[in-house]
Amino acid sequence: MSTFKAPKGTYDLLPPDSATYLAVREAIAAPLRGSGYGYIETPGFESVELFARGVGESTDIVTKEMYAFETKGGDRLALRPEGTASVLRAALEANLHKAGNLPVKLWYSGSYYRYERPQKGRYRHFSQVGAEAIGAEDPALDAELIILADQAYRSLGLRNFRILLNSLGDKECRPVYREALQTFLRGLDLDEDTLRRAEINPLRVLDDKREAVQKQLGDAPLLRDYLCDACKAYHEEVRELVTAAGVVFEDDPKLVRGLDYYTRTTFEFVHDGLGSQSAVGGGGRYDGLSEMIGGPALPSVGWALGVDRTVLALEAEGVELELPATTSVFAVPLGDEARRVLFAKVTEMRKNGVAADFAYGGKGLKAAMKAANRSGARYALILGERDIEQGVVQLKDLESGEQTAVGMNEIVAELESRLG
Ligand code: AMP
């Protein structure tokens, strides 16, 4: 152990568990790759102002959870707490929306940072895979994203997740609802903080997890009763398209989500085996965000799925991913000459696409075979002095224990054929 530990609220991804994380990222990205989404990578930090304006001045993310700092040069930056604002910023900066091919469809994968109170499923550093479709108002696009997330979770073998769906209205109907909700909230017995929140961002109060607050919200006006005709029709179309795809969802009229930029379609994926941190992913439409950060009107929709919580969901369901063995062949040289010869063979195998590892450090046969078994390789290649003289190498099937001598010049082809 060293003097140092991973910072509070963070953890390291180590083999073998880290392979599951990679596989989860891969599984979430695969349906996106197959649906016209291009990969985008943005910096781990951005101007504080981007998040303040993009995510919302009154959100917990911005007021409490952001890792904001001033650089030696005097710039005010923040570690990114989420992906959407950065991706939209990058797309606008590169004028991707002017290339004449809307929507611009992008996917990303990376680390995000929030100064939250750590608990199981809630960390200060976490990992998301996300997708954004920028510059088109089309219910089929909202439906596409919901369907692709469903496909991703199912491809991992997850079953016990639910999709919650709601519409938050648009700039026509939401303000009317906001007023009605505010009037309702003012009449409740709420603490000062919550009352203040009701004035700045009343919809967020609906999201309050405390029972004492939830109890009073039973008769709260619902946005669904205030949607304008255009929003109603849009939402109905999204619902029909998702249903037609065989994807089951629940209407959740109280779903608001913690970011300010959402309009119309909002959705969350929750997993029932995760306790209080049950949201494994979420997203929605953000038609106003581009203008909020100084861009043109670009109606857009996106989601982000949490990798950490998806892994926890797999554990909760007892799903074991079928991970391909990392090493197929483990080479065991006995002596210096064998080391040179066998090392060259390993290099040749690797060039031919056979995943191979080597017993380094001059281990004896017993320790080297132990390492071979631990590596998960199907085959061990053992080379001793007599083998060199005879121009062969011992090929041992570590599953059956069977061992045969194979000509040095044939071994690579032999392994390729055995490994398929
Ligand atoms: P949000 O941007 O808050 O909607 O988050 C999208 C997804 O990211 C959530 O559904 C979680 O799976 C994941 N996530 C958000 N915050 C955290 C966190 N502090 N720790 C782990 N995962 C998180």
List keywords for this structure.
Rossmann fold; five-stranded mixed β-sheet; single chain; binds adenosine monophosphate; 16 strands; 420 residues; 2 domains; BirA Bifunctional Protein, domain 2; eight-stranded mixed β-sheet; alpha+beta
If you had to describe this structure to a student in words, what would you say it looks like?
- With 420 residues, the protein is an alpha+beta fold.
- 38% of the residues lie in helices and 21% in strands.
- The chain folds into two domains: 18-173 and 227-317, 2-Layer Sandwich (BirA Bifunctional Protein, domain 2), CATH 3.30.930; 329-419, Rossmann fold.
- The protein has helices spanning 17-33, 48-54, 60-63, 84-93, 139-155, 174-186, 192-200, 202-205, 211-216, 229-244, 289-292, 307-317, 336-351, 365-374, 385-390, 411-419, and strands at 38-39, 45-47, 68-70, 76-79, 104-113, 125-134, 161-167, 250-251, 263-271, 279-285, 300-306, 329-333, 356-358, 379-383, 392-397, 403-407.
- The strands form three sheets. Strands 1-5-6-11-10-9-7-8 form an eight-stranded mixed β-sheet, sandwiched between helices.
- Strand 12, helix 13 (336-351) and strand 13 form a beta-alpha-beta unit.
- Helix 5 packs parallel to helix 10 (229-244).
- The structure holds adenosine monophosphate.
